[in-house]
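Quick start: what a row looks like.
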Amino acid sequence: MLRLPFFRYLQPKTLAEALKMKADAGPAGMFVAGGTDLYPNMKRRHHEPKTVISLMGLDELRRLEGWNVGTCVTLTKLSNLPTFQHSALATAARLVSTPLLRNMGTLGGNLCLDTRCNYYNQSYEWRKSIDFCMKKDGAICWVAPSSPRCWAVSSSDVAPVMVAIGAEYRLVGPQGERVVPAGRFYNNDGINYLTKQPDEILADVRLPKPNGWDAVYHKLRRRGSFDFPVLGVAAWIKWDGTTVAEARIVLGGVASYPQEVVEAGTALKGAPLSDERIAAAADAAYRPSKPMDNTDFDLSWRKQMTRVYVQRALAELRERHAK
């Protein structure tokens, strides 16, 4: 049986108090929200904090003010809000895991989700039997043994949508506040996958107001629930009548960060969303999509599905715009 290690659990009431507790705990302290990612990782000894600081008691992180969403808003609440009922964000939140875990899991937790890998997300004893991996306790990436970096994959459903729609994140830390575009919040590195510092808190997300644009999210996984994405496709289009003024295609589950394929968006700009333009964008997304042996399904099939899912996402956007 996997058991949590012993740790001290703190419940601050304000952001300032939470930051003070983290400063006192130092590197041995970690923040937690819903805990649906951190606690299983602690059971497998991926993370071994001596102090865990809960953010769920901070009222300012649970607010919904206009288009600003606090990061401790649960995924269930986010997916059921009328404002987001038909948006890509609500769809992505609704596709995360199961209802029970969405009741606990938070927006911020999914945006900061630890990267995952077949060789990493195992019990301590299993990982010890292969001499661990470079993400924790070892020196080699078993996905690509000759590589100097970790290839654990980004498995967030909501993050690709945030990058696609151009959301901004507000971070609060000991040095004050800063706002970063969602696309700059992530690194293509399985270990250092966030630009957020360990002592910073992701406080809220600033969503762009609807202004002639639409977005969708499509997810590939083995089962219809619970599973992490082996491919996620977030597609965003800003319309000028029937013409695509701007477009972004962002892939999840194929790299260590939500991967925007600029060439795919460029292939759509300046013309109606025809079958030919959709095929060109799908081909452009297919080329840089390089799934590896770090999650479910055959690699070549997953790559083929990139083209299929981009086509489906764009076809849905075209259909919705035509109504």
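That is the whole record. The two ends are 53 Å apart (CA to CA). The first helix runs from residue 15 to 25.
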